[in-house]
Every structure is written in structure tokens, then in C-alpha cells.
Design brief:
Elements (H helix, E strand, L loop, with lengths): L7 E4 L6 E4 L16 H15 L16 H32 L1
Antiparallel strand pairs: 1-2
The chain binds zinc ion.
Length: about 100
């Protein structure tokens, strides 16, 4: 039973009793209902957040509220160009991934 990958058991970090563990980050203790592997859930959330972060390498130009109207106008154009560039770049990456995959 210990060799089965689906029905492993894990010692609960809260009540210290053994509980069946399906190696999922949201598995809970049979005895007290606490998470068997709180670290795994944390890292799963971190991974999800990382995946949701789009184009972290693209640094957008900041428009500060005390900029004059002309400065703001040009900054908005530059920003639009940066966004278009990022969109084209992600499209190329998508095509490359689709062709390679
Ligand atoms: Zn427990």
C-alpha cells in the first residue's frame, strides 16, 4: 500500500496522525481537517500567480499625474507602441509554440 502512488499516507502536521494523502496540495487531514501539506498549497498558488503574470519583462512607461498635457500625450503614444510590441511578441511566441508543439 505504501508503494501505491495514489494512496500514500502523510503525517498531519497539526494533530500528528497518519492520514491518506493523494499528493494533492489541497488534501486535508482525516482527523482534524487541516491541510496535510500547507507548503505545497503555497507553492501551487505561487506557480499560478507566476503563470497569470503576463509579460513581466515589458516595462511600461510610467505616466505621472504631474506631467503636462503634451508630455502625457507623447507618453501615451509610446505606451501604446510598447503594448502593441508586446502583443506582437506574444503572438510570435504563440505561433512558435503552436508550430513546435
Ligand atoms: Zn490532523
Amino acid at each position: 500500500m505504501a508503494d501505491s502512488p495514489l494512496f500514500a499516507s502523510k503525517k498531519c502536521p497539526v494533530c500528528l496522525q497518519w492520514s491518506t494523502w493523494q499528493q494533492q496540495p489541497d488534501d486535508r487531514c482525516e482527523h482534524c481537517g487541516n491541510l496535510l501539506d500547507p507548503q505545497a498549497e503555497k507553492s501551487a498558488i505561487a506557480r499560478e500567480e507566476l503563470a497569470n503574470q503576463k509579460m513581466p519583462s515589458v516595462i511600461l512607461m510610467e505616466i505621472s499625474p504631474d506631467d503636462g498635457p503634451v508630455k502625457r500625450f507623447f507618453k501615451t503614444i509610446v505606451r501604446g507602441g510598447q503594448l502593441a510590441f508586446a502583443a506582437i511578441l506574444s503572438f510570435i511566441m504563440w505561433v512558435v509554440a503552436a508550430v513546435a508543439g
